[in-house]
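Data availability (excerpt). The following record was deposited with the supplementary files.
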Amino acid sequence: AQIFFAAALKEPDIGWRADLITLISVLDLTRSATLFRILADDPSLRAATIIQLSKEPAEVDRPLFLAGINYSDPNVVSSSIKALALLGPRPDPEELIALFGVSDVRLSLPLISRIVGRKLKDKNDAFDWLDNNFPVISRSLRTDKPGPLVNWNQLLSDVDWEMGDYKEGKKIFAQRACVSCHLSANALGPDLAGISKRLSPIDLFMAIVKPNADVPPAYRATVFKMKDGTKHIGRVAFNSADGVIVRTGPGRTVRLDEQDIVEQKDWSNSLMPEGLLLGLGADQLADLYAYLKNL
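Predicted structure:
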């Protein structure tokens, strides 16, 4: 491990695999952490590096852990939750969006409770607090409440798109959990490689602001209404004679028995939530664009 680590420092672009990260993990993390952060730039290695960095969490890695809580791998999720617990959760917009955006809010409820200052009973209790304290963020995360009024045309026209910082944009991309839908295995969203060549900055960001305006056919979802009154919305992953497997979010699937499905129809909205850009100013939007145009 020592020999391989020394070679990797000289040539970090060698062919890395997750098992090689495990090999390096036997070394003192104070030595290997810098290399793990470099390797975290590779989406295929990010999960493995998050697990290793979570063993001795540092504030600089907070964006990685916020992204990790939305991964499909339960080991990455639990490692990220533990790391954020040690660092201490913060009531920042990026952190709240990530914590409330977890597929199973029960996992992040202890962290949200620490931000609130009292033990929350359940998801509804958590959202009631968010409604009262961060209404703009709450409206962006809840489908049963109208979205916030923001003059996006004015804000986007104020952005100097050539002045963004790539590294800061990369942090924002991770903090807003974009990685889990666009750069992960079996991504729910479209590939963003070369997106800046296909869309102007304003068109690109308006598509993020209004994800439901024009949903590509390949990424449209289906609504399933069940006998018990529940609804499931997602993209069909597998059809069979006796049921269907539906992908409802990053790393989340549900199997529905054919006999329990009352109605099945196309959904006109996008699986990408509204409000992903809330809280970002002109400089931060320029940073995010600097990262996106290099994908």
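Summary of structural features: The longest strand covers residues 231-240.
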